């Protein structure tokens, strides 16, 4: 029976707002039960009676009492047995259990509390004390009901939050696919030059971007960007920047000949253009680091601008490794930034690694950064690997260094000047 459908023997006054509680009186003494029933009904409680533990359990199985007043000593099973069974039963609420005893002692109180009793009354019971104990029990029941209602609201809110989070996760998974699609080619070959790309967001979406595009018959543009943060804001900015660096000459800023009167914007001019665009057109505190390089794949000449991005690492054909550049300032922070310009010539067997700070600032459990020394060590260790195989090995090394707790996006560009194949002498040739 639900509480809303209870039939009460004494209807409350119209002005009565107190919730009528149901009290089960359990005693083998019928006169005692009658006295309690009269007192409780006068106090506007709904009263149920049982003459034994068995009868009381049968009542509890049909109707849930809010409060139980039970004699401790009864023929057969005792009030202590009833208390244990009451606590073991399935109920919609806690229920307040009061044991009636002839005398209090520490051992009885301990046994009663272990059985699940909430309070004790010593017989003969004074009416004022009975009403006071019941009022205390009502306060506990009221707090429990308020907590239960709050928990129900919290569960409902959490369920709505889970549904919302599920929708967000689905959207982010789709956004991840779209962002990965910004890097349309992971491998490019331009004459003897081979370009390989790596892009791994830390979460669903990230703020790193790498790519390349042809400038002419003999040149190719190479870029690596790292937007501050790796959430939605960073992803939106990388999407916009990818348009400015796409293969279309109508949209690609580097290919707009009208800006300089040449066939392509120089790396330094491109960095300044992006810096002005960030400061003048975008009302945001976001900034990013960048490396943009103009490679002549016929001559091996590489002109490059470094704007706050980690130092590119050059590995010569003889195995020597050296970081390049002085750093430069990030894009979107200063009105008159200073960018670092690098000009070098690659030789057959050389390779250049450009990676984001998600690699150089990868941290092990002891808090130590991988740093440029770690990147150089990875290059030396994996000197026999090439292309995407090298990049995958590097990504694995970074993950192992972090023990899988990678906090930032990682991206990299590997430029290799492939040495010409050497003739192999055959026996007897």
UniProtKB/TrEMBL annotation:
Residues 22-138 form the Response regulatory domain. It comes from the Bacteria. PROSITE patterns: RESPONSE_REGULATORY. One of its GO terms (molecular function) is phosphatase activity. It holds the Pfam family Response_reg. GO terms for biological process: phosphorelay signal transduction system. SUPFAM superfamilies: CheY-like, PP2C-like. Keywords: Hydrolase, Phosphoprotein. Gene3D superfamilies: 3.40.50.2300, PPM-type phosphatase domain (3.60.40.10). The modification 4-aspartylphosphate is found at residue 71. PANTHER family: STAGE II SPORULATION PROTEIN E, STAGE II SPORULATION PROTEIN E-RELATED. This is Response regulator. It comes from Paracoccus subflavus.
